[in-house]
UniProtKB/TrEMBL annotation, chain A:
The lineage of its organism: Bacteria, Pseudomonadati, Pseudomonadota, Alphaproteobacteria, Hyphomicrobiales. It comes from the Bacteria. This is Uncharacterized protein.
From TrEMBL, chain B:
Keywords: Thiamine pyrophosphate. Residues 267-392 form the Thiamine pyrophosphate enzyme central domain. Its cofactor is thiamine diphosphate. It comes from Pelagibacterium lacus. GO terms for biological process: isoleucine biosynthetic process; L-valine biosynthetic process. Coiled coil: none annotated. Belongs to the TPP enzyme family. SUPFAM superfamilies: DHS-like NAD/FAD-binding domain, Thiamin diphosphate-binding fold (THDP-binding). GO terms for molecular function: acetolactate synthase activity; flavin adenine dinucleotide binding; magnesium ion binding; thiamine pyrophosphate binding. GO terms for cellular component: acetolactate synthase complex. InterPro entries: DHS-like_NAD/FAD-binding_dom (IPR029035), TAT_signal (IPR006311), TAT_signal_bac_arc (IPR019546), THDP-binding (IPR029061), Thiamin_PyroP_enz_cen_dom (IPR012000), Thiamin_PyroP_enz_TPP-bd_dom (IPR012001), TPP_enz (IPR045229), TPP_enzyme_TPP-bd (IPR011766). Residues 468-622 form the Thiamine pyrophosphate enzyme TPP-binding domain. This is Thiamine pyrophosphate-binding protein.
Length: 148, 651
């Protein structure tokens, strides 16, 4: 399954809404978590799929960003069940912070494109759940989640 | 007088200063519940302290012994309505004076009736009564401001899908548009969008017909509040005999208890998904409670080895100490590959529940019109929850799921470890009472001490404090925990909610039968207490044994996210050290002021003893500090949440 095909499965199931794909099938955007538009880039040269600029207002030298990186690194732990784990033999985790805007992705090693989309989509979902739990005020200020 | 346990004043847990409550003859919890007469004026005379000057009038204390009028035809519309409420087994009414014909008719038909200090509070009380018991209750208010006070309560009940009956008087039709006298207004437009059904009754002889509409709406489908406003022409109309009622004189002729059964094909489709799933989970929500489907739920879960997590405005549809409970295992949620959403009327949107993007959903509910809203559905089962679960339990294949159950168990242990670490942090802050101390020690008191774990019903409210207490609360039977604010997120009804919950427990109504007469616990904050704190007087006068725990951090919960605003921060603050305990004493309750962590548990024990032995409410004023929400100063700070499960709040 290709990257576009894998993303389409979420569109068909009603998880992603208002889906757009650029003609070169390298950039995609859709409405998903917290009803926000999200941007996925497929870099064939780097063999990487990235949720681009998915979290804003997290300074690179902040405690928040350190904890986000630690959380993501924890998702590669061999202690996690296989269905929850980012297997380092299959993928490298990508987490980049450019001017306090964070992108999260996977670089494919031996994993398939379809598996990469499923793994990364689940990972971003879990990253949001982690924020609802650990950083509620951030979700309130940046994603409009209720603080009550 | 308050029991002020601050060490510098020489008080210790073992030797409190003095008790400032009415010293009635010792009465057990059950006796307190069934014998409000024990709280009469004579009892007050036995007490020698300041608070004993409060006298409960005999009319309240002996209300259950007062004679019932013999109401026969010809009867007024109000009495006909009261008769119908009794025939429909309405369990309680909460009101303030007003709508006189109707509330007196309801009381005269032997429906337990409570009056409080504000119509809004009493509407919240009725809502909570229903959520705790599963039985129908009435909220009543007078026309005009009495009714408008009730609007927030009906909105909250609507978000909870509470089958509550709101009745209000509404002058006379002949006064419409005149502004003759006072309080002339149209009510129904003001409850548009926050009720299941509503009607202004204007045609007197059609009252029986609208009694039918009222109870059909309350007792079928996805529940919700019903708002009926009575014009004077209707409540005063004379009905001469049964012949005036037509077929509406008989419950069996104007509605049915028949329930929609699941289609065989839908059950088969759901079971096919179950056979393919490796990590299924059941979300037991509102509909499981109102359909009384907990036995069928347990049978299905146990046969197919499916973990169960709860959501909704009340907890306990599945016991939290059951090996299959995933209620306190939030990290397992994202692993579920198939979820049965059972009676999840308040449906989250994509991403609000922690289930992952690849999760498939089977949705079970008694109205098809709501199926597919917000979350995509893979199989929809239009059915009464109980009938569908019974069918699934009959036809599901047994399965081991060892790996999945181990994963859930590991998540449960990880969550417990995290909570323990929060408690140890909180215990280390000695200058005030940290919320983790309240949460953990309350939990140990209720579930790991001398009390039977299933005994105590809890109204789980508050704002920041709730983020901690929810993590530690348990429900071992249906309705044992009522989720106060829930979807409408009202901050403030908690003390009023506790009136309704305690009344349900006092009466042993519906799901609270096994707990009849036991003390209950109400958790709230200082901001919330400000809205409905006067209902402590209602708790006291009806001898409702409520232990109200007030988390007092001198501020609204909103302070910490606005604390840096130069002009705005003060808008989120109160005076420091407000003595809610002393206020409670003035209203006839027992008060405790707790200022350090080691004082909390002894105060809780004293309050519980008073509730159990004397049927009196208490306020435990826990002095915290607002800076506890700032993580950089006081780890772990303000907590977030993961839904569904023990932290469920919105859905």
């Amino acid at each position: 399954m290709t990257i576009p095909d894998a993303l389409q499965t979420y569109v068909q199931r009603g998880i992603f809404k208002s889906f757009n794909a650029q003609p070169d099938q390298r950039k995609f955007d859709f409405v998903w978590l917290n009803r926000k538009r999200m941007h996925v880039h497929w870099n064939a040269g780097r063999n990487a799929i990235v949720f681009k600029d998915v979290l804003h207002n997290i300074p690179a030298r902040s405690r928040h960003y350190r904890e986000v990186r630690a959380y993501l690194k924890g998702r590669t732990s061999p202690d996690l069940p296989a269905h929850r784990r980012v297997d380092p033999d299959l993928f490298d985790l990508v987490c980049e912070n450019h001017k306090s805007v964070v992108s999260v992705g996977l670089r494919l090693k031996s994993g398939s494109q379809g598996a990469a989309v499923r793994r990364l989509t689940a990972l971003v979902h879990e990253l949001f759940i982690y924020h609802h739990d650990r950083w509620p005020e951030y979700m309130y200020e940046n994603f409009g989640s209720p603080l009550e | 007088m308050s029991i002020d346990t601050r060490p510098e004043e020489g008080n210790t847990a073992a030797n409190p200063s003095r008790r400032s409550f009415l010293k009635f003859a010792a009465v057990g919890a059950g006796a307190a519940a069934s014998s409000p007469m024990l709280a009469g004026a004579a009892g007050a005379q036995e007490a020698g302290d300041e608070a004993a000057r409060l006298v409960v009038p005999d009319e309240i204390a002996n209300r259950d012994q007062a004679p019932l009028p013999d109401i026969q035809f010809p009867m007024t519309g109000a009495n006909l309505f009261g008769r119908a409420c009794a025939l429909e087994d309405v369990k309680a009414m909460f009101c303030c004076p007003g709508n006189y014909n109707v509330i007196h008719a309801i009381a005269d038909h032997n429906i337990p009736s409570y009056s409080g200090r504000n119509e809004g509070s009493m509407t919240h009380a009725a809502d909570a009564f229903v959520r705790a018991t599963g039985e129908i209750a009435i909220a009543s208010g007078t026309e005009g401001p009495g009714f408008t006070n009730m609007i927030s309560g009906i909105a909250a009940a609507n978000s909870c899908r509470t089958p509550m009956l709101l009745v209000a008087s509404n002058m006379r039709v002949e006064q419409d548009d005149t502004e003759q006298g006072i309080q002339v207004m149209y009510q129904q437009p003001l409850t548009e969008g926050i009720k299941k059904y509503g009607k202004r009754l204007i045609t007197p002889h059609r009252l029986p017909e609208y009694i039918g509409y009222t109870f059909r709406q309350l007792k079928t489908g996805i529940p919700g509040p019903v708002h009926i406003d009575f014009t004077g022409e209707v409540s005063n109309h004379q009905f001469e005999g049964e012949a005036d009622l037509g077929h509406y004189g008989s419950v069996a002729r104007y509605r049915t208890d028949s329930r929609p059964a699941p289609a065989a094909g839908d059950i088969e489709a759901a079971l096919r998904l179950l056979d393919q799933a490796e990590r299924p989970m059941i979300v037991a929500s509102t509909g499981v409670f109102y359909a009384k489907a907990w036995d069928a739920l347990k049978a299905f879960a146990e046969k197919a080895n499916i973990p169960v997590v709860e959501s909704g405005p009340m907890m306990g549809k599945f016991p939290h100490d059951h090996p299959l409970s995933a209620h306190a295992a939030p990290d397992a949620l994202a692993s579920a590959d198939l979820v049965f959403l059972v009676g999840q009327y308040c449906m989250p949107t994509v991403g609000e529940f922690a289930f992952g993007p690849d999760t498939r959903y089977v949705r079970i509910q008694p109205e098809a019109g709501d199926m597919g809203r917000n979350l995509p559905v893979d199989v929809g089962i239009f059915s009464c929850e109980k009938l569908a679960l019974e069918e699934l339990a009959d036809r599901a294949r047994s399965a081991e799921r060892t790996s999945w159950l181990n994963e859930v168990d590991a998540a449960r242990r990880a969550f417990a470890d995290q909570n323990q670490s929060y408690y140890e942090m909180g215990r280390g802050y000695s200058e005030a009472v940290h919320p983790a101390v309240i949460a953990k020690e309350l939990s140990d008191f209720l579930y790991n001490g001398d009390l039977a774990p299933e005994q105590t019903t809890v109204l789980s409210g508050g704002f920041g404090i709730a983020r901690y207490t929810r993590r530690f609360l348990q429900a071992h039977r249906p309705g044992q925990v009522v989720n106060g604010a829930y979807q409408f997120a009202s901050i403030g009804p908690d003390v009023a909610y506790a009136v309704g919950v305690a009344a349900g427990v006092q009466l042993g109504a519906g799901a609270q039968a096994a707990a009849q007469g036991a003390p209950i616990v109400c958790i709230t904050g200082d901001a919330g207490f400000g809205f409905t704190g006067m209902e402590i007087e209602t708790q006291a006068k009806y001898r409702l044994p409520v232990i109200n725990i007030v988390y007092n951090n001198n501020s609204w919960g909103t302070w910490y996210s606005n604390r840096d605003l130069p002009r705005g921060a003060q808008l989120h603050l109160f005076q420091e050290g407000v003595r809610y305990d002393r206020m409670a004493e003035g209203l006839g309750a027992h008060g405790e002021y707790v200022t350090s962590p080691d004082q909390f548990l002894p105060a809780l024990q004293r309050a519980y003893d008073i509730a159990q032995n004397e049927g009196l409410p208490s306020v435990i004023n826990c002095q915290a500090k607002r800076e506890f929400w700032i993580r950089d100063e006081y780890e772990p700070g303000f907590l977030g949440k993961v839904e569904p499960g023990v932290m469920s709040y919105y859905h």
